[in-house]
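Intended use. Records like the one below are meant for learning the mapping from a protein sequence to its folded structure. Do not use them to infer anything beyond what is encoded.
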Amino acid sequence: MKKILLSILKFSSAFILTIIALEVFFRFSEVFLPSMVYDDPRLGLLRKPNAPYLSLNEGFGMGTVNEYGYLGPGYPKEKDGNKLRIALIGASIVQGLEVFDWQHFRKLLEEKLSEVSGRKVEVLNFGRGGIDFRGAYTTQKYIASEFHPDINLIFIGGNTFIAKDDKPGPEYQLQNDSLVTDYSFAESSQFKLRTRYKFLRLTAIGNLLKRGYEFYQLSTPGKLILGSLYKEPSVIHNNSVNVTEDPYIEIDSVIIKIYENINKNGKNLNIFVKSEEYSENYERIIRNSNIPVFDLAGEFERCRKNGENIDYWKGSNTQGHWNLHGHEVTAEFLFKNLRNLGF
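Structure written out for the chain above:
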């Protein structure tokens, strides 16, 4: 019996020491890191200030969340009146974890505008992966607005309007034609489950196991075994949107009206950046508003017709978020359109 207990003790000690050694190795080598996000009971999924991150899914990107919780340099909430400050708001295409910050269109746009404007230009990346149009509004209203941007560039597309954020966060309801924020998500079973097991994301190993499980759930067996050697079927882009109904259109219409009223009052300029096609219902609503729209989707279509690739990653053989050329095209396109508006 003593031999069995001693064997169990030795095995347990060796197992614990191995786990600790792996955790130390992962953290110091940055091969894998603890999660860069946490669940906030008011705003949902947010980034941890000063958290390091590493992305190997499509391209290769790494860096550190700034002390204020958004990506890029840590520009403080207070703003010098002589500066031009631009907020980038959108989902994972804006977040751009697949590239380094110096390759991101945020940095490229900031440099281009600084060269010609005669003012100090600050471009702040508030992109949050997975958010929809309601999530973008939450980002603008409760996060980006605290940094007093002169311009909000809000990236929109078909998925922005028809997809629901799969992470718990605040929702909106209409009451007498007014928008009311609903924070009941904090009482949902999904949010409670995420917060109950948040300790898993506080360690590199726990986060690795969590990501591995998610990858297993979403991936094909071939890709799971072969990784980047797995050859996926070619993706053919189709910009047409076949949507028979828009489940959030009433709420989204009110949000668009709020952006429109802000523009009319001259407080700051909200600009939609159309990154992909969306339904005719939204096309009509946005066309009838006074909100400027930059047709980035049209620019990308012209690039594809010229044989340019803006979202294929040769190293990982995947098609997804914007690659380096996609970020360059986006920066140049935004620069030209902002210059046309007088910035």
